[in-house]
Amino acid sequence: MEELCKGVRLLGVDFGLKRIGVSVCDGEWILATPLPVIYTKSMRVSIDAVAALSKAQNVGGIVIGLPLNLDGSESIQSGRVRAFSKNLQRVTGLSTVLYDERLTTVEANELLIEAGVVKAADRAKLIDSMSAKVILQSYIDNKKSENNHG
Question: Which of 6, 24, 64, 138 has fewest C-beta within 10 Å?
Fold first, then answer.
């Protein structure tokens, strides 16, 4: 797994076949913020859209949620995410890191409820980007913890 260097903004990605949740963090890796979801129809459109966003957001690396089964094994979607990551890295020239995203949708849903988004239909519109925020925030918090203990 590649390492990303602190001091650059990062893009967080929750890859889906219809919607891609995205988030961004500051260069000091303090806070991840959700961005509007990207609607997509194909892998090519997805790669181009995320590549354009990474350029627009001036990020230096990309953290992509890797969907694993609860037992840690990979799923069909895991393979799609690995292909997406590899192609995105090739197109953007940026380092990509795959990060375990198990239970991030559950956490994202709880955060939305705590924020007062009570209707399920309203949460459904926001869940992908909130999941991307949780993925990215978990990654940066984990890296800060490793640096403090390593």
Answer: 6
Closest by alpha carbon to 11, among 46, 52, 59, 51? 59
Alpha carbon distance 76, 123 (integer Å): 26
pLDDT in tens, 102-138: 878 888 888 888 888 888 888 888 889 999 999 999 9
Q: Which two tokens stand for residue 72?
A: 């840690």
pTM of the model: 0.90
Spell out the SS3 assignment of 11-65: EEEECCCCEEEEEEECCCCCCEEEEEEEECCCHHHHHHHHHHHHHHCCCCEEEEE
What is the rounded CA–CA span in Å between residue 144 and residue 126? Answer: 27
